[in-house]
């Protein structure tokens, strides 16, 4: 006979015992694996069940964002500075990398919103939903990896040895995107405007980040790029894959470290806020 697990609820704040809270968070994260996998399979099946093209739609956003700029640059309508690799590859690789970040921003709120009715009926570990969202982001990147390899082959770009660090850059983008997504999730559960505003905000932010153009060296655009924390994440990740050398490594390390620390804080804040939010939306 299996041993039953008892959960005791008290009015005492979990923050009064940080060590115990940390152990419980790690345990819940570990115990959520099976449920997270089931949620992941369910969400992926539902997402593409009524789609004729299926995973082809995963390739559409980066191509739609980059190909118009490739065309305008080829026709001389938009003049861009010289890029270290052919501009077509530079733009498409940049938008594929950017889409990983965008997916990571949207995934937590989208997944929690999809499980909204279940959350109000079943007392489950919220970490399972976050792990499911993370798995969806990783799957999207793995599918686009085929497009990435095709682009490099088409432009005859031989990845340097630093391409082995490319997954580190992708992981940093996922961590940073998840940080923003987890912070916005509690607010997005209460107000649908957040989910509506995310595509607009990420599109605007894309044009402030050197994705489709090299980092400016003069003017206001240079200042904006320097203070944009996403600049080193995108440029270093792309440089590792296709160039080799990079000029933003220190900023990349600092940004990634801060994102990881803040992500842990965001996880804690979301864990504390979710029971109150579920009680409010279920009332």
Description:
By secondary structure, the chain is an all-alpha fold. The chain is globular. The protein has one domain. The protein contains eleven helices and no strands.
User: What portion of residues is helical?
Assistant: over 70%
Structural class: mainly alpha
Spans of at least 5 consecutive residues whose pLDDT stays below 50 are none
- The fraction of residues assigned to DSSP E strands is under 5%
Q: Tally the helices.
A: 11
State the end-to-end CA separation: 37 Å
Domain module tally: 1
Overall geometry = globular
What order do the helices and strands follow? Answer: HHHHHHHHHHH
Radius of gyration: 21 Å
Strand tally, please? 0
Mean pLDDT: 81
Brief summary of the model shown:
It is built from eleven helices and no strands. By secondary structure, the chain is an all-alpha fold. The protein has one domain.
Which labels suit this protein?
about 0% strand, mainly alpha, about 280 residues
Topology at a glance:
Elements: H1 18-31, H2 33-48, H3 56-74, H4 87-114, H5 116-119, H6 126-154, H7 166-190, H8 193-208, H9 219-227, H10 230-242, H11 249-282
């Amino acid at each position: 006979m299996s041993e039953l697990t008892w959960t005791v609820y008290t009015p005492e704040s979990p923050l009064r015992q940080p060590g115990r809270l940390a152990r419980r968070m790690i345990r819940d994260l570990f115990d959520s694996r099976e449920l997270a996998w089931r949620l992941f399979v369910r969400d992926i099946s539902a997402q593409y069940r009524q789609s004729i093209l299926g995973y082809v739609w995963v390739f559409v956003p980066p191509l739609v964002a980059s190909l118009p700029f490739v065309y305008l640059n080829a026709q001389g309508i938009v003049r861009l500075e010289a890029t270290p690799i052919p501009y077509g590859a530079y733009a498409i690789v940049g938008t594929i990398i950017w889409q990983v970040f965008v997916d990571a921003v949207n995934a937590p709120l989208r997944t929690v919103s999809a499980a909204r009715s279940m959350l109000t009926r079943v007392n489950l570990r919220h970490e399972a939903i976050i792990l499911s969202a993370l798995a969806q982001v990783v799957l999207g990147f793995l599918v686009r990896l085929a497009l990435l390899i095709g682009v490099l082959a088409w432009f005859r770009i031989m990845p340097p040895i630093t391409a082995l660090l490319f997954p580190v850059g992708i992981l940093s983008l996922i961590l940073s995107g998840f940080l923003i997504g987890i912070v916005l999730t509690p607010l997005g559960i209460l107000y649908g405007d957040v989910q509506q505003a995310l595509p607009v905000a990420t599109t605007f932010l894309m044009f402030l980040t050197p994705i489709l153009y090299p980092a400016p060296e003069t003017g206001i655009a240079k200042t904006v790029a320097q203070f944009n924390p996403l600049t080193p994440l995108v440029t270093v990740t792309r440089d590792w894959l296709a160039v080799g050398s990079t000029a933003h490594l220190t900023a990349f390390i600092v940004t990634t470290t801060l994102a990881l620390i803040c992500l842990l804080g965001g996880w804690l804040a979301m864990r504390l806020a979710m029971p109150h939010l579920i009680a409010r939306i279920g009332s």
